[in-house]
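in:
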């Protein structure tokens, strides 16, 4: 099976080790960032959703305009745009991007973040609403006549189905969330289920749970894993980079959080990363958890550390579990995206292609025998 690489762009230079600088929306930076991913051989870029961030639809439209083949993955939170409107907006963007759009459905695990945009319903209710929301998207994208709907969260009559995506049967749906409620909905709706960078054993358990959930609906799901590769020519140099990353993070957070109370993350995914960090700073040879521990695991915060060959080996271990998409971004976002394209992405693609060829030869040999 082929492998997919997804990067992530922002609208200004920033990461855990680089406080935001410059205008909140730096158009030239967005252009260079998107084009760097295309030139590096990424398949898609994620445009994130943040309560204090630029509008993702517009950022994605611009990224599509300044690239030629690069796919887009637009993070979208149900609850803030009516599903009938979202269906048309997403289908429209699919047209203007030439069929390059995917949508990443994020129900929202953090109450505080949700409330900044006026959403006060509970965690499980958010997933219940997401279930209804995504069902509506899929119906509108695939129906051949106007759609009526009356549910717990949405009600409408004769919603138009004139604006359909280019992609058939519909725009690919990526899905995030680690709670039981999230896994139940993922099995029903996700084309690709996204995991954060957990240890292999925990990732295997989650993959099994999602597969069982999908099987109850007669479906199959692909899997994505998010991690933050830290690369260098030698293993010692890579761990030296990792030490500088955590030292910088602690210095920055120490200044910013002086006197502030510690907060327990609400998202189950964050809690799982913190639980992994409690088991050790380095797991499965090179899964580094120090950044998750230092930042409260608010987002994709575990890293694979080593030479390109060593990190590729670790990624292949996840591939063997069923992961066929890797969302990778660095702590030096633009420079790291370029570096990944020089060695890591081609190396992983070659190794997986070689594995698949060997499997095909072995199967052909068994058939011939």
């Amino acid at each position: 099976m082929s492998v997919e690489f997804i990067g992530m762009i922002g609208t200004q230079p920033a990461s855990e080790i680089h406080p935001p600088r410059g205008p909140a929306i730096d158009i030239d930076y967005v252009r260079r960032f998107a084009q760097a991913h295309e030139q590096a051989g990424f398949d898609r870029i994620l445009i994130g959703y943040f309560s204090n961030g630029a509008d993702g639809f517009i950022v994605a439209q611009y990224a599509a305009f300044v690239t030629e083949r690069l796919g887009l993955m637009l993070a979208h939170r149900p609850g803030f745009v009516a599903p009938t409107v979202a269906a048309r907006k997403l289908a429209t963007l699919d047209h203007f991007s030439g069929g390059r759009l995917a949508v990443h459905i994020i129900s929202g695990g953090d109450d505080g973040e949700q409330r900044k945009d006026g959403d006060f319903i509970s965690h499980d209710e958010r997933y219940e609403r997401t279930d209804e929301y995504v069902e509506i998207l899929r119906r509108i994208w695939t129906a051949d006549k106007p759609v009526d709907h009356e549910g717990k969260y949405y009600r409408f009559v004769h919603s138009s189905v004139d604006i359909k995506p280019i992609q058939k049967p519909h725009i690919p749906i990526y899905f995030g969330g680690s709670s039981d409620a999230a896994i139940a909905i993922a099995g029903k709706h996700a084309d690709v289920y996204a995991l954060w960078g957990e240890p292999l054993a925990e990732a295997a358990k989650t993959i099994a749970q999602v597969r069982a959930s999908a099987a109850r609906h007669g479906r199959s799901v692909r899997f994505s894993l998010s991690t933050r590769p830290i690369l260098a020519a030698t293993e010692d140099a890579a761990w030296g980079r990792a030490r500088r990353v955590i030292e910088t993070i602690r210095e920055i957070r120490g200044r910013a959080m002086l006197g502030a109370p510690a907060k327990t993350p609400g998202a189950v995914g964050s809690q799982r990363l913190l639980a992994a960090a409690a088991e050790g700073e380095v797991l499965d040879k090179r899964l580094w958890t120090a950044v998750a521990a230092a930042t409260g695991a608010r987002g994709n915060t575990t890293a694979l550390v080593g030479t390109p060959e060593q990190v590729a080996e670790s990624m292949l271990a996840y591939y063997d579990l069923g992961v066929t998409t890797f969302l990778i971004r660095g702590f030096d976002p633009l420079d790291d995206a370029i570096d990944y394209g020089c060695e890591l992405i081609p190396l992983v693609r070659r190794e997986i292609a070689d594995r698949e060829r060997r499997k095909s030869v072995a199967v052909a040999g068994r058939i011939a025998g």
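note: Residues 258-262 have pLDDT under 50 and may be disordered.
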